[in-house]
């Protein structure tokens, strides 16, 4: 396959939406938002209190009983997955020399992205901090089984 | 004997190595993100399953590896600001070199504050 490089300043040869431009803008816009979301996530989960030692099911249950952290984590999930997948797409486009392999890699990247965004979103929306039958000592203190 | 290329914004000097580091840290963070979405999804399975997997994050080996992850996130986020400034700030290109060293300094300072506290959690 030969690579065609257009003359500089030649008019765009394609019609329709300029997806590369929207991707370029998205990387910068989502990146700026992700700085606050990810560094805030690391600060609250790894720096405050007992840090990594304090993270368990009850910790997540406590956070996701608050809509604020649900929205935070959902925004982080969607933006980070799309930002990361688009970054990987850029790298694949740079280094894949065979068009069929490039297409296969880019398709797999977006496939994995869609699966993980769907999985993560379903988990946040269907999460139950007090599942029936679980050991009470593993559940958040506000669960009815721990109420007395 | 051919002389070495002088280097440009994107080749041979800070412009190139900042870009190389941005790629490497980006790929590393991406693969951790895939794992992290999956391990967090275990809260939907059972408290036991989630706790069993998340406890591996508290072991000395993975605990130290998390320092690498945090360092990668710090560099990638601060250098991302530098990229946005190069693209949108009128003087961004002029100051890209000094901005790289500011990026490295901020990342290092935050990393130096985070590291002893995190290690005290992992080994404490």
Automatic annotation (TrEMBL), chain A:
Keywords per UniProt: Heme, Iron, Membrane, Metal-binding, Transmembrane, Transmembrane helix
| Gene Ontology cellular component annotations, sorted alphabetically | membrane
Write out the annotated subcellular location. Membrane
Write out the transmembrane intervals. 22-48, 68-92, 104-127
Q: What is the lineage of its organism?
A: unclassified sequences, metagenomes, ecological metagenomes
Can you name this protein? Unannotated protein
A molecular function (GO) held by this record is: metal ion binding
Q: Tell me which InterPro entries the record gives.
A: SQR/QFR_C/D, SuccDH_FuR_B_TM-su
TrEMBL record, chain B:
Annotated keywords: Heme, Iron, Membrane, Metal-binding, Transmembrane, Transmembrane helix
Question: What Gene3D superfamilies does UniProt report for this protein, alphabetically?
Answer: Fumarate reductase/succinate dehydrogenase, transmembrane subunit
Record's subcellular location: Membrane
Membrane-spanning residues: 20-38, 59-78, 98-115
Give GO MF terms, alphabetically. electron transfer activity; metal ion binding
Q: Where primarily located?
A: membrane
One biological process GO term for this chain?
tricarboxylic acid cycle
Cellular component aspect of the GO annotation: membrane
What does the record list as coiled-coil region(s)? none
Question: What is the protein named?
Answer: Unannotated protein
């Amino acid at each position: 396959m030969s690579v065609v490089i257009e003359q500089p300043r030649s008019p765009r040869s394609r019609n329709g939406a300029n997806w590369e431009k929207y991707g370029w803008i998205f990387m910068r816009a989502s990146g700026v938002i992700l700085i606050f979301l990810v560094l805030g996530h690391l600060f609250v989960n790894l720096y405050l209190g007992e840090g990594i030692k304090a993270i368990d099911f009850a910790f997540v249950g406590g956070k996701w009983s608050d809509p604020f952290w649900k929205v935070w984590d959902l925004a982080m999930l969607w933006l980070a997955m799309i930002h990361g997948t688009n970054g990987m797409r850029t790298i694949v486009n740079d280094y894949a020399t065979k068009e069929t392999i490039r297409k296969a890699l880019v398709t797999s990247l977006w496939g994995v992205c869609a699966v993980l965004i769907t999985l993560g979103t379903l988990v946040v929306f269907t999460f139950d901090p007090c599942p029936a039958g679980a050991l009470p000592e593993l559940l958040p203190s506000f669960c009815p089984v721990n109420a007395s | 004997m051919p002389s070495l290329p002088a280097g440009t914004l994107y080749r041979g000097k800070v412009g190139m190595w900042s870009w190389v580091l941005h790629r490497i840290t980006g790929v590393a963070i991406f693969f951790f993100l895939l794992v992290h979405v999956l391990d967090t999804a275990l809260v939907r399975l059972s408290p036991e399953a989630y706790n069993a997997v998340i406890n591996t994050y508290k072991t000395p080996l993975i605990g130290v590896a998390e320092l690498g992850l945090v360092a990668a996130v710090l560099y990638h986020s601060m250098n991302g600001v530098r990229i946005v400034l190069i693209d949108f700030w009128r003087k961004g290109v002029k100051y890209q070199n000094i901005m790289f060293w500011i990026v490295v300094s901020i990342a290092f300072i935050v990393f130096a504050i985070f590291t002893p506290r995190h290690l005290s959690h992992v080994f404490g």
